[in-house]
Amino acid sequence: MKDYLNYSKSSVKIIIKILLVILFIVSSQKNIYAQVQPFDSNAVKIDTSKFVMQKSPWGAVLRSALLPGFGQFYNESYWKIPIFWGVLGALGYQWSVNNNSYVVNRDKFAESEMSKPGGNIIYYKMSEFYRDQRDLVAVFIGLTYFLNLVDAYIDAHLFDFDVSKNNSVENFRLSLKIKF
Question: Per-domain residue ranges for the chain?
Answer without folding.
Answer: 54-158
